[in-house]
Amino acid sequence: MSEINTITEKKNFDFVDTIRCISMIGIVWEHGSAVPPNIYHNVFDTIVEASVIQSFKFSTIAFFLIGGFLINHKFQEYSTLQYLKNRFNNTVKPWLFWAILLILLTCLDRYVAYIKGGSSEIVDNFFGYLGHLSFRSFFFTSFWFIPNFLFCITILLLFKKYLYKIWFGVILAIMSLFYSVNLYYGWVETLHAAALFGFIFYLWLGVYLNKYFTTVMAWIEKKSYAVLITAVALTFCLACLESMNLNRIGISDSYNTLRVTNILYSFAMFALLLKIGNIQFLKDKLKPRETTFGIYLLHFVIIDRVFKLILQPMHIDVKKFGIWENTANHFVRFLVAYSLSLFVTMLINKTRFKWIVGNRN
Fold it and tell me: Most buried residue among 35, 41, 297, 321 by CB atoms closer than 10 A?
């Protein structure tokens, strides 16, 4: 996302900040839920839950599309090793800082719990616990995005002589669709964070979009808002129905990003956002170019550590709440996590330590 945090100076694409800002809002919204899947049995409650979660489910694919769009020219300027080396300071170092902070805070929390009579795992097998926690934190929390994003970039750089070949994109699309089908059969891990080859296609599509941007925008401009909004509404409903069906047949990962219907919804939303273009208010007030990566890095630490520190002593059981109480809880958690992440990022950006949110000194 740090790559998404830097717009090429060769061109100014006004829509980029809008999509980046809205997509990050969606990422925080998605992670703000405190409710485990499949707890509602009433059809109406399930529809509401599916609608609330699905609303921003386009965000992850949108980030890969924007990421590919912004780095297209760099594929021609740098070798794989040069590019990855350039990314280290602006992307990997801040990512490591916050991921390690999450790990340290979790270890501290577990040690305090042990002193108070809780599980002794952290002292009985500290290095085993630390290894498991580190693997989970790097690859199965929101921090999964950076290693996956860099892996996708590496693959495209290794095959960059085929970058604008349609057949290459088709192969990548088939790889992604494998994970869509895998949701129903469980041949491999279903979590989208584990879909190592699942997102390369969307990064490639962003690169392809950049190359043929004029043609794509000419097509978008010919479409009325009514057509695009209808496409969004239809794919949204289909995505909700697929999630409800996955819930019905007992699939725990029923809101997976790589559902076929969610892919279609993400494309429809992306097209609508391209049509809308720049929203100056978001650019002026939320400053997505300077804050997006920081919000990404901070928000999960706030949700996973700060919220738990405050709420665990209250012993709140969300499973006993109804759909409306949990939806309100979701909104409040999102609002606090996003606002606090934005505020802290803006503060850090005023200091010499702004490198920890991906901005150069």
Answer: 297
